[in-house]
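re the bet — no i am not wrong, look at it urself. input seq straight from the record:
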Amino acid sequence: MDLFGNSNDWDKKLYPILKKYKGKKHPLEYQNLYQLVVMVVLSAQDSDANINTIAPPLFKVYPNMESLAISNVEAIIPYISKVKNFGNKARWLIEISKIIKKDSNIPLTMDGLIALKGIGRKSANVIMREAKMPAVGVIADLHVIRVAPRIGLITETKDGIKAEKQLMQVLPQEIWGKIGMAISFLGREICRPIPKCIECPIKEICLYYSKIIK
């Protein structure tokens, strides 16, 4: 039963977007797990496009966790100064690097990841998804928070933790690892703030669409 009291085969209803975005890499242009972790931390409240722009010079100087761990906040700030909240993010990255020390120590569990500064459940879910680890949650980024209520999956909320909790309640666990990014890609490409409903592959099951065509 979903939050609206309906029995829904959401895995079947959402299959068109699961198929459309199957295996699609996250928009962050990372080359390895170390880069992914750093870029995920930097991307909070910022755009993936901006992080993709500033990342190459940063990684040229700091190619791995070991190099970051022997640096300091003041040294890395010039490379990330165009990122929102760069001061805090610089401190978080240095702290993470000094804890992890080398790339092979990067944790790939929810508990291990969220114990690190600057990494919450959303970021941890992204890292685990890209590392192909079994999902223990659902990615609930800003796109998912906007789109999922439109579809009728969850009630409206601006809280990512609440959104994820609702999604975990209504969606079968076997699609947790795929559906978050599928909804996110749908939000990036089609279900924009002003949605292009006519292009949507799941408009027939969408609560929002059913209201606008009445």
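see?? The chain has 13 helices and no strands. told u. also The radius of gyration is 18 Å. so pay up
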